[in-house]
Amino acid sequence: MNVTREQAAGVLAGNWLGTSTVPSRSLYPHQWSWDSAFIAIGLRHLAPARARRELQTLFSAQWRDGRVPHIVFDPGTPPEAYFPGPGFWRAGRTSGIVQPPVHARAVLAVHQAEPDHAFLAALYPKLRAWHEYLLGARDAGGRGLAAIVHPWESGMDNSPAWDGPLSRVTPAAGFVRRDLEHGCAADRPSDEDYGRYVRLAADYRDSGYAGTGGFVVEDPGFNALLADAELALAEIAEALGLPSDPHRETAARVAKALQETLWDSASGWFFARDVRTGSLTPQYTCSGLLPLLLPDLAVAPALLATATGPRFRLGRVHGVPSHDLTAPGFDPGRYWRGPSWFNVGWLVRQGLLHHGEHALAAQLGEDLVETAARTGFAEYCDPLTGQGHGTREFSWTAALTVDLLAQPAAVA
């Protein structure tokens, strides 16, 4: 286990730029929003000051409207190293879209590892502004849920849940993909899907990053993480001697809206909702399992029954499959259309602990650590064989391995 921790620490050291950590030196050579939150959670065990710096760097790029951009570009990286880069977004040193709000949980974890009230006090108003942006400007459906306006905002870029809403988008042309220079085409989104991503991003950019476009979706994973983040913000407020009830009340409202809007009792699953049509998307994806993070989730037993059944076989495969194992479109190697991702496994393990599933949580934690070590800290893996896919020496895989190894109940 010490070797695994040292190897993981080596990955994080190798991907450190001096003020932040890249997910991968090759495929993702800048700072990504939710990656940095997961990275900080692991770094707190190795170098708390570096974990604080990771989050401070990210929030130094926060927009005036409160949004935390999904990429902060490294000025020392050549513009041609990644597309779409800063020239495409025309937003200074950042992109113009967001990623899931896992940051409050990361800030709290970093503070708990090495208490620093100045750090907490500086980031609290930034976190509050971030959540207010999501709960206000992004409540496109008027139901108290934050909507995403681009598949990349979900963090689960080419999830089958987006196929329906994306079908209305005409793919862009005339761009050069940089990701295929560093990743196997069979593991990455298709050219057609990538063209739709570029079209949506360009349209949103040209709107001045305001309002919504052709893709407007309420994602269960994104909103579960937002509710959990409000609970973390309540703990941060308490640590600062500030009122915490408003954050707990907000978390409860989001959780209630999530269950009333996105839960399908007949299926035993949370589905994304296409705000433009008002319909739930029919695909079972790992996003629907993330509401387990909410401790008072009344439908948790039914959700767990589906997760441990044939669609996801939780506890009998490697990690948490990103898509229904029984679906005709399940692909064990293509990005978010089947493979298991380490951060989702880590989040689901947290949810299992909230609902008393300690044996299953321990089993999942053991598998995550073993798979990470065996695959060279792969970006994601085949849930059926455990084979690594995507880039290797991936930062959040390494960081969350460190965190799991620090948890006494995580691994035998």
Brief rundown of the structure:
The chain is mainly α.
Written account of the structure:
- It comes from Amycolatopsis australiensis.
- By secondary structure, the protein is mainly α.
- Helices cover 43% and strands 5% of the residues.
- It is built from 14 helices and eleven strands.
- It has helices at residues 2-14, 33-43, 48-59, 86-89, 103-113, 117-136, 163-166, 191-206, 220-239, 245-262, 300-307, 342-354, 358-374, 395-406; strands spanning 31-32, 71-72, 147-148, 217-218, 263-264, 269-270, 273-274, 279-280, 340-341, 380-381, 388-389.
- The strands form four sheets. The chain has a four-stranded antiparallel sheet with strand order 3-4-7-8. A three-stranded antiparallel sheet has the order 9-10-11. A two-stranded antiparallel sheet has the order 1-2.
- Helix 2 (33-43) packs parallel to helix 5.
- The longest helix is centred in the first third of the chain and has 20 residues, at 117-136.
List the helices and strands and how they pair.
Layout: H1 2-14, E1 31-32, H2 33-43, H3 48-59, E2 71-72, H4 86-89, H5 103-113, H6 117-136, E3 147-148, H7 163-166, H8 191-206, E4 217-218, H9 220-239, H10 245-262, E5 263-264, E6 269-270, E7 273-274, E8 279-280, H11 300-307, E9 340-341, H12 342-354, H13 358-374, E10 380-381, E11 388-389, H14 395-406
Antiparallel strand pairs: 1-2, 3-4, 4-7, 5-6, 7-8, 9-10, 10-11
Helix pairs in contact: 1-14, 2-3, 2-5, 2-14, 3-5, 5-6, 5-9, 6-9, 9-10, 12-13, 13-14
The appropriate CATH architecture is Alpha/alpha barrel
Number of domains: 1
Number of strands: 11
Instruction: Report the mean per-residue pLDDT as an integer.
Output: 94
Top-tier CATH class: Mainly Alpha
Uncertain segments of ≥5 residues (pLDDT<50)?
Answer: none
Alpha-beta content class: mainly alpha
CA radius of gyration? 19 Å
- Give the strand order of the largest sheet, numbering strands 1, 2, ... along the chain: 3-4-7-8
User: Strand content of the residues, in percent?
Assistant: 5-15%
Q: Could you give the order of the helices and strands?
A: HEHHEHHHEHHEHHEEEEHEHHEEH
Tally of helical runs = 14
Described by strand count, sense and barrel closure, the largest sheet is:
4 strands, antiparallel
The N- to C-terminal Cα distance equals 10 Å
Shape: globular
The level of helicity is: 40-55%
Instruction: Predict the CATH topology.
Output: Glycosyltransferase
Domain Mannosylglycerate hydrolase MGH1-like glycoside hydrolase: 28-397
Family: Belongs to the glycosyl hydrolase 63 family.
InterPro entries: 6-hairpin_glycosidase_sf (IPR008928), 6hp_glycosidase-like_sf (IPR012341), Glycoside_hydrolase_63 (IPR004888), MGH1-like_GH (IPR054491)
Keywords: Glycosidase, Hydrolase
